[in-house]
Amino acid sequence: MTIPIYQKIMELIRDEIRNQAPNTPILSERELEKKYNASRMTVRKAIDLLVEEGVLYRVQNIGTFVADSKLHKKTDSHALNSFDLECDYKIIYFDVKDENREVAQKLEISTHDQFVRIVRLNLQNGQPESLDQIYIVRLMIDDSVMNNILNILEFSAKIETGSVNQVFVPMIVPVKFANLLNVKINTPIICVQSKINTKNGRIYAYIESYLNPEAKSIEITI
Amino acid sequence: MTIPIYQKIMELIRDEIRNQAPNTPILSERELEKKYNASRMTVRKAIDLLVEEGVLYRVQNIGTFVADSKLHKKTDSHALNSFDLECDYKIIYFDVKDENREVAQKLEISTHDQFVRIVRLNLQNGQPESLDQIYIVRLMIDDSVMNNILNILEFSAKIETGSVNQVFVPMIVPVKFANLLNVKINTPIICVQSKINTKNGRIYAYIESYLNPEAKSIEITI
DNA sequence: AAGTGGTCTAGACCACAGC
DNA sequence: CTGTGGTCTAGACCACTTA
């Protein structure tokens, strides 16, 4: 349980700039090197990561500066956190199926391979925020967790994802979901189609998230 | 004209793995160090960047592997490339205005400050792909380019952005844009609202992009 | 001339996998 | 035990800006 020095320095810098105005310089790399008694490469690594986060920005030959907090880079795209267990949700439906050409194609499996389907309503302060249709490749789920749907979700949350691919599709809310989402018929909504890939390039899950535009907006800062 | 060594190594690695199957290992860092006659830190920097791009992935204590090309991380979110001059487009409208509360609020300027408004239709193979309403803070545009709208766009393309904030809004296509976008009345579409920030946290431009769902889908791989 | 960030080197030690 | 990626050091030179 040894935290790398560069991570400690990241936290120290965060502390230092917490009350510092945007666009004011932080100490130079050579000053921080002495202050934290670390090598310059280690200090740079800490700064590099904070720059990537959008917390700091560099100007060549001049210095490193505190960024405006509204520039912090975050991706609050809905389905990325689909397996987030912190949220309130209600399971609407759950089964194991096969022989569905469309789903098999999305999951890149044969039509004869099984998949798990979970329909889940996500709540925020009791209000329906989105409805997920989750399809998971049966073969990629450990047998030991198949007995319980909560175990499957917990298992899924731990999957090391290689990347997530999302397509945003505009549509009129499907009639069968309008009531559940507490949205009027004919409301335009966004459906996020996500493919969760493992590191070796196989698809673990395919998710369709129907978002209630009143409760959930997709926002990205890059 | 001196390209850093780590960038050269990135290209060399790209070449090496071009015909290599996904999930097969590349040479170890110490082997690459000798092969390219560079220090390990330099080799690591090259690999680090390729991992960030999603071209490679590491497994601790084991090795570094070629990623599936579908895992390459890209953000093809429309308005990010709004000032991309490579695309075909047609200027629909252009003026300089002020006294618009709503726009002033988005641009975080006083209602008395001027802004430039450009309405632009983006084409792909002659088909309308999206319609942008671009609002730029007048004060942030160099006087020397104000004489020509193309100069303004070129100037904008060169702005060093700190970050881009995007909100995705589902809606029915505005009637006034339906014809231009070659989309039927009542079609559900996505409008991307983008704020282009400079490094010092000021807003340079605000863009509303109305996307033709037939011609343009928003896709992100993270 | 002094100071900055950007790049680079040639070592080093660590924890962990697999044999 | 060997090899891997992860971390770290104490220097160095460069191009550039500002004074």
UniProtKB/TrEMBL annotation, chains A, B:
SUPFAM superfamilies: Chorismate lyase-like (SSF64288), Winged helix' DNA-binding domain (SSF46785)
An example molecular function term from Gene Ontology annotations: DNA-binding transcription factor activity
Gene3D superfamilies linked to this entry: Chorismate lyase-like, Winged helix-like DNA-binding domain superfamily/Winged helix DNA-binding domain
Keywords on record: DNA-binding, Transcription, Transcription regulation
Residue ranges of every copy of the HTH gntR-type domain listed in the record: 3-69
One Pfam family hit: GntR
One biological process term in Gene Ontology: negative regulation of DNA-templated transcription
Family annotation (InterPro entries): Bact_HTH_transcr_reg, Chorismate_lyase_/UTRA_dom_sf, Tscrpt_reg_HTH_GntR, UTRA, WH-like_DNA-bd_sf, WH_DNA-bd_sf
Origin superkingdom: Bacteria
PANTHER family for this protein: MANNOSYL-D-GLYCERATE TRANSPORT/METABOLISM SYSTEM REPRESSOR MNGR-RELATED (PTHR44846), MANNOSYL-D-GLYCERATE TRANSPORT_METABOLISM SYSTEM REPRESSOR MNGR-RELATED (PTHR44846:SF1)
Entry protein name: GntR family transcriptional regulator
